[in-house]
Amino acid sequence: MSKIHIVSNRLPVSIENGPQGMQVTPSVGGLATGMRSIYKEYGGQWIGWSGIASDGLSEQEVEAIDEKLVDENCVAVHLSNEEINLYYEGFSNNIIWPLFHYFAQFIDYNPDYWEAYIKVNRKFADKALEILEDGDTIWVHDYQLLLVPEMIKAEKPGVTIGFFLHIPFPSFEVFRILPWRKELIKGMLGADLIGFHTYDYERHFFSSVRRLLGYEVSFNQIHMEDRIIMADAFPMGIDYAKFSGKAKEVSQKSLQEKSELHRELEKYFLGSPDRKLILSIDRLDYTKGIPNRLRGFELFLERFPQFRNKVTLIMLVVPSRAAVEQYKLLKSEVDELVGKINGRFGGINYTPVWYFYRSLPFDNLIELYSSSDVALVTPVRDGMNLVAKEYIASRVNQTGVMILSEMAGVVKEMGEAIIINPNNDAEIAEAIYQALNMPLEEQRERMKLLQQRISRYDVFKWASEFLKGLKKIEAIQQKFLAKRITNSVKKDLVGQFKKAKRRAIFLDYDGTLVGFHNDPQAASPDQELHKLLVKLEEDKKNTVTIISGRDRDTLERWLGDHHVNLIVEHGVWLKNYGSEWQMIDNINSNWKPIIRPILENFVDRTPGTFIEEKNYSLVWHYRKAEPEQGELRANDLKDELRDWISNHNLELMEGNKVIEVKAGGINKGMAAMRFLKDQQFDCILAIGDDWTDEYMFRELPESAITIKVGLKNTAAAYKVESVNSVRSLLKSLGE
Ligand code: GDG
User: Fold this and answer.
1) Entry's NCBIfam families (predicted)?
2) pLDDT per position as a tens digit, 588-616
3) What is the residue extent of each domain of the chain?
């Protein structure tokens, strides 16, 4: 059975070197829970760092760790202190983390970090490659391992790779700041499926793929030279049953059974019936908006004095990355703000902010969730934010109000929360006021809907949806690859071709014989192409026809010396070798004065675009336009042309970054068939790359060898990846 493996920076276990040797304890975090159900079920391994630097360990200790991990189906990547400093603290947490959360000012552009990041990603990939077999699936997690998918794909293309990013993917304008942006994005593209928490991150990613690498994105698929892959949004869920179950259990405990924290919380509420508790839980991180939250709470107490002595903000801040300068500064800022608020509004019997700077056991966490009337979640940027979901799951009596930042990924699933902009203190203060005054009935209505949604899409559903996505892309890839010309197919085709006595060869030009250029006039044939054509022409059994959308003059100038026929302007003109140009059918062009001004208007509004005028068609080129604007305008243009097209019997052809308007009824298929009429061929070969060639593939007799360049859907019988593959095939045919 093919297996499913996981790779993440940390293994889902904690390891302690105690008096009894190495102790391994499984972690209880959300990702660990969600993934454990998968990799164990599918007989896979989890690859990651053990959490202990290897340079403090003896060889025996390293072996002991490896041995202990076998029982957990885990494989350790051993990292030294220096590697952790440079790859993890350095590149991951001092470059990618701030940048992807829009804190570009915090980036430390240290080239050593980059070198270490490559080296350590390679270590992870190598460890994975040791256990991967063709047909296996591997799911790579998060921003520490962006290069791993490409590293694995390069060595083992038969492995299906998923990648999930747990933090936001920033807009292109921010992502482009990085010197290593192309390498990172190429690294991710090694995956077959790339998952994000939200559609916004997905579209930012597509935008970077288009702009940095020029790949075409259609719907959620990315077409690369020789592969097609997919990206999609999979909002991560929590282990809902675990949180709601524990909350139920906690609520049913007797006073004696309750923890000290829980008893203290209950005592607080007994003090007065008006007492309310607002909860805030995060790692100490500048992305979480902790100072904003405190400022909002301060303003609330200032503006609504009736709530002083009655409302407490309980703030759990879990220490994180404490050695980094920005985190130290943040810690001082938070300490100061808490002191200021408590000093300003506190008294003998009232402390406005209860501040815990540590982490608490799971049971305490649940007690906090279930005792708090309001959850205040105000990140300035957050990939998802699971705390928000955990609060919802823990509200067994269905009361409680969620105040949520619009900058957290989770907001997409929580329309019933009170949504705030975390940079607007006044809005936070107002939201707290609204939350505290919300009638119980309304709280229940909102909470019910939230609970329904969050419980349905839990962490198990998330993981299984992602795996379904992987299956889907595998099927798409299979379909796209089905028609590919493999070595044995190539051998058969060449054999069939060689056996024939009279062969008609139709070759499209751009995208088939030569690659695309920003300037269409720069695509003249190179020496290799001239030689290839000569080889084909020399064989008297061959009749070669170049069939293109180009104009007469250009193709005649470029290929006039060859013994080939030319069909141009998608079938308007034919020039048999040695004869004059003739029009294949009677066509008029009295529609041009109507269409030209429309195209001109689009040229004026879209920098980088231009019009090419052919005898019987007008072409709008947008290859040089800024890619997204180009696509948008192309859609607008098609819309605008629609009525004209049907009223004037015109045809709109969409090529590769071109929109062409021409007289209707004329196309490459019709032209090729006219050419073949009254002639006897026992082999017909047609190769083309775009939409306009599909006419030819459809019209030619079924016995024809039709070949599409590129991986898109096609009516052709076969596919090849690129211009290079076409040339290699033609070479074999000419030999
Ligand atoms: C990253 C992304 C994305 C917190 N304090 C304690 C404690 N926690 C647990 C919470 C929650 C987790 O930590 C925090 O998860 P978040 O999602 O809120 O935030 P990040 O750690 O920044 O996670 C984030 C996530 O990845 C998943 O993709 O949502 O956007 O930044 O589960 O319960 N747990 C215990 N004691 C504590 O004191 N036991």
Assistant:
1) HAD-SF-IIB, PRK14501.1, T6PP
2) 788 899 899 999 999 988 989 999 998 88
3) 4-76+128-233, 240-456, 484-585+666-734, 592-663
Residue 236 — pLDDT band, cuts 50, 70, 90? Answer: very high
The response to whether residue 223 sits with its C-beta less than 6 Å from ligand 1 reads no
Q: Which of 290, 293, 387 most suits a substitution to test ligand 1, by most atoms within 8 Å of the C-beta?
A: 387
Q: Which of 35, 197, 315, 385 to mutate to test the pocket of ligand 1 (most atoms within 8 A of CB)?
A: 385
Q: Tell me the CA–centroid distance for residue 386 and ligand 1, in Å.
A: 6
Q: Which atom of ligand 1 is nearest to the CA of 166?
A: 28
Q: Which fold has domain 4-76+128-233?
A: Rossmann fold (3.40.50)
CATH class of 484-585+666-734: alpha beta
In sequence order, which ranges of 97-216 are alpha helices (DSSP H)? 97-100, 111-131, 148-155, 172-175, 181-188, 199-208
Contact by Cβ (8 Å): 136, 160: yes
Chain segment 541-569, per-residue pLDDT in tens: 999 999 999 999 999 999 999 999 999 99
In tens, the pLDDT along 690-721 reads 888 999 999 999 999 999 998 777 899 999 98
Q: Which residues are catalytic?
A: 508
**Atom from ligand 1 closest to the CA of residue 409:** 30
Ligand 1 near 387 CB (within 6 A): yes
Provide the angle, in degrees to the nearest 10, between the axes of the packed helices 111-131 and 148-155.
Answer: 40
Average pLDDT (372-384) is 98
Selection from 16, 66, 10 nearest residue 35 by Cα? 10
Quote the mean pLDDT of the chain.
Answer: 93
Residue 321: left if φ>0, alpha if ψ -120 to 50, beta else—which one? left
Fold agreement (4-76+128-233, 592-663): no
Span 436-460, average pLDDT? 96
Per residue in 572-583, pLDDT (tens digit) is 899 999 999 998
Cβ proximity of 407 and 274 under 8 Å: no
Judge if the beta carbon of residue 652 lies within 6 A of ligand 1. no
Q: Is the CB–ligand 1 distance for residue 167 below 6 Å?
A: yes
The answer to whether domain 592-663 has CATH 3.30.70.1020 is: yes
Burial 594-610 (b: 16+ CB within 10 A, else e): ebeeebeebbeebeebb
- For ligand 1, say whether the CB of 261 is within 6 Å of any of its atoms: no
User: What CA–CA distance (Å, rounded) separates 163 from 145?
Assistant: 9
Nearest CA to ligand 1 atom 36: 360
pLDDT of 689 > 90? The answer is yes
Testing ligand 1's pocket by substitution, the residue of 384, 392, 413 carrying the most ligand atoms inside 8 A of its CB is 384
Angle 337-341-346 from CA coordinates, rounded to 5°: 150
Q: Check residues 28 and 580 and name the one with the higher pLDDT.
A: 580
